Amino acid sequence: MRPHIAVIDDDEKITALLRRSLAFEGFEITTAPDGAEGLKLLSQRQVDLVILDVMMPRMDGWEVCRRLREAGITSPVLMLTAKDEVTDRVKGLDMGADDYLVKPFALEELMARVRALLRRRSDKTDDIGYFRYDDLLLDVDGRETLRGDRRIELTAKEFDLLHLFMQNPKRVLSRDLIMERIWGYDYSGESNVLEVYVAMLRQKLEESGEKRLIQTVRGAGYVLKGDS
């Protein structure tokens, strides 16, 4: 399942830019032109992240954020504002925002903050016992793996390796980091053990012709990403 992001901003140019850019990165996008419409949208549909402008007609971003948190909606909120005053940033964070970006902003920085907030949210899903990425489901508590409707039998190490990838979607993981997390600092086995396990994991995940999700980044490591 693709992460779903809501963009709530009355600036049509910014909304169009974010819609194109986020969709290009593989996210599902829903937009609203003001705070009141945005609050209505978020009360009707669950999203993984909210990008929320502060200064909007009918209802400003601060009030939207405050009402979201009062309603028990816990989706991360990235607030956008033209003001760079410390008091404004503090006010947004006090209302329940998770991050703050001042306009005009660099698109690369916004994307980095979006990825960081989604990773943080993905880590928290460990508390409820499962992770999702694309058509892949990992049930941590039950130690089960599903690709669509197909159940996949994994060894303990294969499961742990996939769990690490699912905790860090679209993040390149170095060989050293993976070896440390899965086998420990003092692992002294064959040097190609990681490559062997990645190959076995890919074979099981792609057994019915599914697209590749674990990609090799030459000279850097591996990444869980849907693009081939």
TrEMBL record:
InterPro entries, A to Z: CheY-like_superfamily (IPR011006), OmpR/PhoB-type_DNA-bd (IPR001867), Sig_transdc_resp-reg_C-effctor (IPR016032), Sig_transdc_resp-reg_receiver (IPR001789), WalR-like (IPR039420), WH-like_DNA-bd_sf (IPR036388)
Coiled coil: none
Swiss-Prot/TrEMBL keywords: DNA-binding, Phosphoprotein, Transcription, Transcription regulation, Two-component regulatory system
Alphabetical list of Gene3D superfamilies matching this protein: 3.40.50.2300, 6.10.250.690, Winged helix-like DNA-binding domain superfamily/Winged helix DNA-binding domain (1.10.10.10)
Record-linked Pfam families: Response_reg, Trans_reg_C
GO cellular component, one term: protein-DNA complex
GO terms classed as biological process: regulation of DNA-templated transcription
GO molecular function: phosphorelay response regulator activity; transcription cis-regulatory region binding
Domain OmpR/PhoB-type: 128-226
Response regulatory domain boundaries: 4-118
Annotated positions of the 4-aspartylphosphate modification: D53
DNA-binding region boundaries: 128-226
Protein name: DNA-binding response regulator
Biological classification of the source: Bacteria, Bacillati, Bacillota, Bacilli, Bacillales
